[in-house]
Structures are given as structure tokens and as C-alpha cells.
């Protein structure tokens, strides 16, 4: 099996898992993984992510050009922005999960996660006392413009683990598809806790 085939199989499996959890309804979400040569395996646009086959994963170069003529995810630019900024990142996952969308309705500009043991599931965080700021960007159909906003945020803060797009979903990543899945699961859990806490307090 080639590197591409292995990563494509992992992305297909990630789609099944995220769909099973209810985090990529309908045709929403997109996933990618970076190969050793810098090219990227990414989901084709418009596919149902819970029912992917290996044929729904295509290869693009680091500028987002399709290497086989098929159309990659409409949100490819957001994946590329993360790969450009963080050389250690090997996989980017984008769910449209309920808690992320609800959080974006309740919290404006950012969601601060602190005093959560699950913060330690994220790369480079080793204590619940870490204060993690998850920025919330306004949704935008202009992906290059949205990617620029994300990039400016990274430029200003020098660090980013995940971000939410309001009324849409979130982006998370990791050093492998498995690590990115772990990040998604941990973040969705913490978003859900914050949303429920907000409900209890108000
Ligand atoms: C019905 S979901 C609208 C598009 C979107 O937000 C998404 O995540 C899926 O787009 P893609 O082109 O990657 O299929
Ligand atoms: Zn989306």
C-alpha cells in the first residue's frame, strides 16, 4: 500500500467515525492528511463524509492544485493555511458538530477553555490549568478571505489549536489522523460542557 492509500483509508475511516457521532451530517465536513513529499490527500467536494470510499480522496499539491483533475473540498484553502503555519501538522479535520455550532451562538469572538482535564488530550498541553483560547470567526463563503483572517489570528497569537466558524463547525488538527481525531473528540466534549454550563447558569 502506498502512503497515499494508507492515509486515504484513514480519512475514510475518520469520516465513518465522525458521521457515527453525528458530527458531519449530510455532505458537511472535510478531511485531509499531508504526505511526506508535501502533497496532501483531501476529500473531494460534495461527498457524504460518512459514506466515503478511497475513490473520494484525491491528491493536491501544497498550493491546492488538484493532481488528478478532480475537485477538492471547497474549503481546501483552510486546510492549506494550517499546513503552511504548522509544519508538524499531518492531518486536518473539519466537523460540523452541534456543540461547536451552539457555542458559536452563545459566545462571541472566542471561547475560552480552562480547568478541563481533557485539555491534556491536545498536543503540547500538559495541565488542566492551561488557558486555551479558541477563536470564533464569522462564517464566510469567501474561503480565501476567511483563511486570511485565520492566518492573521495566528500571526498575532503565535499559537492555535483549533478554531470555530460561527454557525458552521470547527477545524482541528494533529500530527496524524488519529491525533486529529482525538483533538476533535476532546474539543467537542469541552464545547458541549461549556454550552451546557451556559444553560445552567442562565
Ligand atoms: C452542506 S455543507 C456546506 C459546505 C461545507 O461547509 C463543508 O464542510 C463541505 O464542503 P466540501 O466541499 O468539502 O464537501
Ligand atoms: Zn464546512
TrEMBL record:
Upper taxonomic lineage: Bacteria, Pseudomonadati, Pseudomonadota, Gammaproteobacteria, Methylococcales
Family of this protein: Belongs to the aldolase class II family. MtnB subfamily.
Residue sites binding Zn(2+) per the record: 94, 96
Top-level EC class as recorded in UniProt: lyase
Assigned EC number: 4.2.1.109
The organism of origin for this protein: Methylomarinovum caldicuralii
Obligatory cofactor(s): Zn(2+)
GO molecular function: aldehyde-lyase activity; methylthioribulose 1-phosphate dehydratase activity; zinc ion binding
Record gene name: mtnB
Gene3D superfamilies with a match to the protein in the record: Class II aldolase/adducin N-terminal domain (3.40.225.10)
Pathway: Amino-acid biosynthesis; L-methionine biosynthesis via salvage pathway; L-methionine from S-methyl-5-thio-alpha-D-ribose 1-phosphate: step 2/6
Catalytic activity, reaction form: 5-(methylsulfanyl)-D-ribulose 1-phosphate = 5-methylsulfanyl-2,3-dioxopentyl phosphate + H2O
Entry's cofactor comment: Binds 1 zinc ion per subunit.
Database matches in SMART domains: Aldolase_II (SM01007)
Assigned GO CC terms: cytosol
Protein name as annotated: Methylthioribulose-1-phosphate dehydratase
InterPro entries noted in UniProt: Aldolase_class_II_sugar_metab, Aldolase_II/adducin_N, Aldolase_II/adducin_N_sf, MethylthioRu-1-P_deHdtase_MtnB
Keywords: Amino-acid biosynthesis, Lyase, Metal-binding, Methionine biosynthesis, Zinc
Protein role: Catalyzes the dehydration of methylthioribulose-1-phosphate (MTRu-1-P) into 2,3-diketo-5-methylthiopentyl-1-phosphate (DK-MTP-1-P).
Keyword Zinc: yes
GO-annotated biological processes: L-methionine salvage from methylthioadenosine; pentose catabolic process
HAMAP family in alphabetical order: Salvage_MtnB (MF_01677)
The Class II aldolase/adducin N-terminal domain, residue ranges: 9-195
Amino acid at each position: 500500500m502506498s502512503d497515499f492509500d494508507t492515509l486515504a483509508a484513514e480519512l475514510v475511516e475518520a469520516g465513518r467515525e465522525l458521521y457515527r457521532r453525528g458530527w458531519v451530517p449530510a455532505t458537511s465536513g472535510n478531511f485531509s492528511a499531508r504526505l511526506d513529499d508535501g502533497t496532501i490527500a483531501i476529500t473531494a467536494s460534495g461527498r457524504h463524509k460518512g459514506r466515503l470510499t478511497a475513490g473520494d480522496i484525491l491528491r493536491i499539491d501544497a498550493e491546492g492544485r488538484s493532481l488528478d483533475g478532480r475537485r477538492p473540498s471547497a474549503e481546501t484553502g483552510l486546510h492549506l493555511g494550517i499546513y503552511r503555519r504548522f509544519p508538524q501538522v499531518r492531518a486536518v479535520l473539519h466537523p460540523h458538530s452541534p456543540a461547536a455550532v451552539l457555542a458559536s451562538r452563545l459566545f462571541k469572538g472566542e471561547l475560552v477553555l480552562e480547568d478541563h482535564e481533557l485539555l491534556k488530550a491536545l498536543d503540547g498541553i500538559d495541565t488542566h490549568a492551561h488557558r486555551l483560547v479558541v477563536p470564533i470567526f464569522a462564517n464566510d463563503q469567501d474561503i480565501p478571505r476567511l483563511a486570511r483572517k485565520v492566518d492573521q489570528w495566528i500571526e498575532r497569537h503565535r499559537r492555535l489549536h483549533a478554531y470555530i466558524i460561527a454557525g458552521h463547525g470547527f477545524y482541528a488538527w494533529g500530527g496524524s489522523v488519529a491525533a486529529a481525531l482525538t483533538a476533535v473528540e476532546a474539543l467537542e466534549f469541552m464545547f458541549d460542557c461549556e454550552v451546557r454550563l451556559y444553560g445552567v447558569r442562565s
